[in-house]
Amino acid sequence: MPQDRPRVVVVMGVSGSGKTTVGVELAETLGWRFQEGDALHPAANVEKMSHGIPLTDEDRWPWLDAIATVIDGWRAKGERGVLACSALKRSYRDVIIGERGDVALVYLQGAKELIAARMASRHGHFMPVALLDSQFATLEEPSANEHPIVVSIDQPSADIVRQVIARLTSPA
After folding, report:
1. What is the value of pTM for the model shown?
2. Residue 91 included in any domain
3. Number of domains in the chain
4. Any alpha helices (H) in the chain, and if so which ranges?
5. Residues spanned by the domain of 15
6. Is residue 3 part of a domain?
7. For residue 126, what is the domain's CATH number?
8. What is the C-alpha to C-alpha distance for residues 15 and 93, in angstroms, rounded to an integer?
9. How many CB atoms lie under 10 A from the CB of residue 2?
């Protein structure tokens, strides 16, 4: 991939949209590093969410700073990476992407009903289906000036990854 292409890709969407699945597949296909954003949450955040309590902006700021630190670390070392993170609000994306021109945003877009069905079938995840409404209430879909790669989740993850790579590698 040429130097003018993104060095980091943030895969965003509500819980259950497939961020981890797509992020891992994308990173493996590209040979890049992968970081699960949920792993950077402070224990108190995980505890709240596991009890069905939505996070506040105040809860999220330290987590967003931790994500930005990972991204900046990759960039400083000249590494390439994919990070899965809900990034639901523009203000959150401003922290983790901001003016970093070498960071691309991928938005996994899908219907609440499809995502709820996916969440109901997964096991061992701290985020309950009960919080999906709060995720959609918080979601501010990326605007055109954020230059997102928007991909529908109503297709196999391999197809999503192919679409993302095609968009990442196409001329601007």
Report:
1. 0.88
2. yes
3. 1
4. 19-30, 43-50, 57-77, 90-96, 112-121, 132-138, 157-169
5. 8-169
6. no
7. 3.40.50.300
8. 16
9. 5
